[in-house]
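Subject: Sanity check before I submit

Could someone independently write out the structure tokens for this chain? I want to compare against mine line by line before I put it in a report. The sequence has 145 residues.
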Amino acid sequence: MSANDAATPMAVWEPTCFRILFIVSAIWNFGGAFGGLTDTAGMFEREFGRALTDPVMLSVYRGAWGTAMLYGFGFLLVALRPMRHTGIVMMGGLGKALFALNLLQMLLNGWTSSFAIIVIAGDAVFVLLFVLFLFRMKRAGLSIL
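---
Independent answer below. Compare away.
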């Protein structure tokens, strides 16, 4: 924002909407992580259309779901004080964008089932909403880092 641009204050309702966004994004992550951690092989089979029999891949895949769960806790932290935890929003948004792009590439190569479309679309929506949040922060004259 240049010196000539006036800050556009956030509407009274915007912080509440952003808190709800981060609670919903945490629930989204917890939903996937719960299934991925409690039924790792089943989740893999739904996502990739084949059985997960390699113990190393099972461990790696379960670890990825553990990471998704940690992102969920990060989004809950953001929900408490969105204007304070923008770094988590940036990290989480970038993680979601990279994950969705990688999953899209796997889908286009025929390596995953159509179940991946739900994950890709959901993460893409969250990325767009996170960008909107950061844009509103910047337009309101608030620091995003």
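---
OP: Matches mine. For the report I'm noting this point. Residues 3 and 104 are 41 Å apart (CA to CA).
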